[in-house]
Specification:
The chain has 137 residues and is α+β, with helices and mostly antiparallel strands. It has two helices and eight strands, in the order E-H-E-E-E-E-H-E-E-E. The radius of gyration is 15 Å and the shape is globular.
Length: 137
Protein backbone atom coordinates (compact mmCIF):
# COMPACT_ATOMS: atom_id res chain seq x y z
CA UNK A 1 0.00 0.00 0.00
CA UNK A 2 1.19 3.49 -0.77
CA UNK A 3 -0.28 6.72 0.58
CA UNK A 4 0.15 9.78 -1.62
CA UNK A 5 -1.05 13.37 -1.70
CA UNK A 6 -0.28 15.77 -4.51
CA UNK A 7 1.56 18.97 -3.64
CA UNK A 8 -1.07 20.69 -5.79
CA UNK A 9 -3.97 19.18 -3.81
CA UNK A 10 -6.38 16.48 -4.86
CA UNK A 11 -8.30 17.05 -8.07
CA UNK A 12 -12.07 17.11 -7.86
CA UNK A 13 -13.96 13.88 -8.52
CA UNK A 14 -15.31 13.94 -12.10
CA UNK A 15 -19.07 13.82 -12.58
CA UNK A 16 -18.51 10.95 -15.04
CA UNK A 17 -15.40 8.75 -15.11
CA UNK A 18 -13.56 9.20 -18.42
CA UNK A 19 -12.73 6.12 -20.53
CA UNK A 20 -9.24 4.93 -19.63
CA UNK A 21 -9.33 6.40 -16.11
CA UNK A 22 -9.05 4.47 -12.87
CA UNK A 23 -12.53 4.24 -11.38
CA UNK A 24 -12.46 1.76 -8.48
CA UNK A 25 -10.21 -0.29 -6.21
CA UNK A 26 -11.25 -3.47 -4.50
CA UNK A 27 -9.38 -5.30 -1.76
CA UNK A 28 -9.61 -9.09 -1.86
CA UNK A 29 -8.40 -10.25 1.53
CA UNK A 30 -8.01 -13.42 3.54
CA UNK A 31 -9.18 -11.55 6.68
CA UNK A 32 -11.90 -9.02 5.85
CA UNK A 33 -12.67 -8.06 9.48
CA UNK A 34 -9.02 -7.27 10.23
CA UNK A 35 -8.53 -5.39 6.95
CA UNK A 36 -11.70 -3.35 7.51
CA UNK A 37 -10.55 -2.34 11.01
CA UNK A 38 -7.11 -1.39 9.62
CA UNK A 39 -8.43 0.92 6.89
CA UNK A 40 -10.95 2.54 9.22
CA UNK A 41 -8.22 3.29 11.79
CA UNK A 42 -5.37 4.26 9.45
CA UNK A 43 -7.25 6.08 6.66
CA UNK A 44 -10.39 7.10 8.54
CA UNK A 45 -12.78 5.31 6.20
CA UNK A 46 -16.29 4.42 7.26
CA UNK A 47 -18.22 1.69 5.48
CA UNK A 48 -21.55 0.41 4.27
CA UNK A 49 -22.16 -3.34 4.05
CA UNK A 50 -23.89 -5.32 1.30
CA UNK A 51 -24.90 -8.95 1.73
CA UNK A 52 -23.66 -10.95 -1.26
CA UNK A 53 -25.28 -14.19 -0.15
CA UNK A 54 -22.99 -17.22 -0.05
CA UNK A 55 -20.07 -15.06 -1.21
CA UNK A 56 -20.17 -13.10 2.07
CA UNK A 57 -20.31 -9.38 2.78
CA UNK A 58 -19.06 -6.61 0.50
CA UNK A 59 -17.89 -3.48 2.31
CA UNK A 60 -18.01 -0.09 0.57
CA UNK A 61 -15.17 2.01 1.99
CA UNK A 62 -16.27 5.64 2.24
CA UNK A 63 -15.12 9.14 3.03
CA UNK A 64 -18.23 11.04 4.04
CA UNK A 65 -20.94 9.84 1.69
CA UNK A 66 -18.56 9.07 -1.20
CA UNK A 67 -17.63 5.43 -1.88
CA UNK A 68 -13.89 5.11 -2.49
CA UNK A 69 -13.36 1.37 -2.81
CA UNK A 70 -14.56 -2.06 -1.89
CA UNK A 71 -13.34 -4.75 0.48
CA UNK A 72 -14.34 -8.40 0.54
CA UNK A 73 -13.17 -11.84 1.55
CA UNK A 74 -11.10 -13.14 -1.35
CA UNK A 75 -12.97 -15.21 -3.91
CA UNK A 76 -9.65 -16.90 -4.74
CA UNK A 77 -8.54 -18.81 -1.63
CA UNK A 78 -5.21 -19.65 -3.31
CA UNK A 79 -4.35 -15.97 -3.85
CA UNK A 80 -2.70 -13.67 -1.32
CA UNK A 81 -4.58 -10.56 -0.26
CA UNK A 82 -4.44 -7.97 -3.05
CA UNK A 83 -5.89 -4.73 -4.33
CA UNK A 84 -7.67 -5.08 -7.66
CA UNK A 85 -7.79 -1.79 -9.61
CA UNK A 86 -10.62 -1.10 -12.08
CA UNK A 87 -10.33 1.02 -15.21
CA UNK A 88 -13.29 2.42 -17.17
CA UNK A 89 -13.63 1.13 -20.74
CA UNK A 90 -15.99 1.82 -23.63
CA UNK A 91 -16.70 -1.89 -24.30
CA UNK A 92 -16.04 -4.58 -21.69
CA UNK A 93 -16.39 -7.53 -24.08
CA UNK A 94 -14.05 -5.98 -26.66
CA UNK A 95 -11.50 -5.24 -23.91
CA UNK A 96 -11.62 -8.86 -22.70
CA UNK A 97 -11.09 -10.12 -26.25
CA UNK A 98 -8.22 -7.70 -26.79
CA UNK A 99 -6.56 -8.80 -23.52
CA UNK A 100 -6.68 -12.42 -24.74
CA UNK A 101 -5.32 -11.48 -28.17
CA UNK A 102 -2.39 -9.65 -26.54
CA UNK A 103 -1.37 -12.65 -24.40
CA UNK A 104 -3.41 -11.96 -21.28
CA UNK A 105 -5.70 -14.38 -19.51
CA UNK A 106 -9.30 -13.51 -18.67
CA UNK A 107 -9.90 -14.68 -15.10
CA UNK A 108 -13.56 -13.62 -15.04
CA UNK A 109 -15.45 -13.37 -18.29
CA UNK A 110 -17.52 -10.22 -18.85
CA UNK A 111 -20.59 -10.15 -16.64
CA UNK A 112 -23.15 -7.62 -15.49
CA UNK A 113 -23.43 -5.95 -12.10
CA UNK A 114 -26.99 -4.62 -11.89
CA UNK A 115 -27.13 -0.80 -11.89
CA UNK A 116 -23.30 -0.58 -11.97
CA UNK A 117 -22.09 -1.87 -15.35
CA UNK A 118 -20.41 -4.74 -17.17
CA UNK A 119 -17.01 -5.89 -15.94
CA UNK A 120 -14.30 -8.50 -16.41
CA UNK A 121 -11.02 -9.37 -14.72
CA UNK A 122 -7.85 -10.11 -16.65
CA UNK A 123 -4.29 -11.06 -15.85
CA UNK A 124 -1.33 -9.79 -17.83
CA UNK A 125 1.36 -12.20 -19.10
CA UNK A 126 3.36 -11.66 -15.87
CA UNK A 127 0.43 -12.41 -13.53
CA UNK A 128 -0.75 -8.91 -12.52
CA UNK A 129 -4.55 -8.63 -12.31
CA UNK A 130 -6.71 -5.74 -13.46
CA UNK A 131 -10.45 -5.30 -13.81
CA UNK A 132 -12.17 -3.23 -16.44
CA UNK A 133 -15.72 -2.00 -16.48
CA UNK A 134 -18.16 -0.30 -18.81
CA UNK A 135 -20.07 1.80 -16.32
CA UNK A 136 -23.86 1.99 -16.62
CA UNK A 137 -25.43 5.29 -17.55
Amino acid sequence: MCLWKSADGDRADPAKTPIGAWCWNELWTTDDARALAFYEKVIGYTHDSMDMGPEGTYYMLKTGEVSRGGLMHSVRPDAPSMWLPYVAVADCDASANRAKALGGKVLMEPSDIPNIGRFAIAEDPLGAAIAFIKLAG
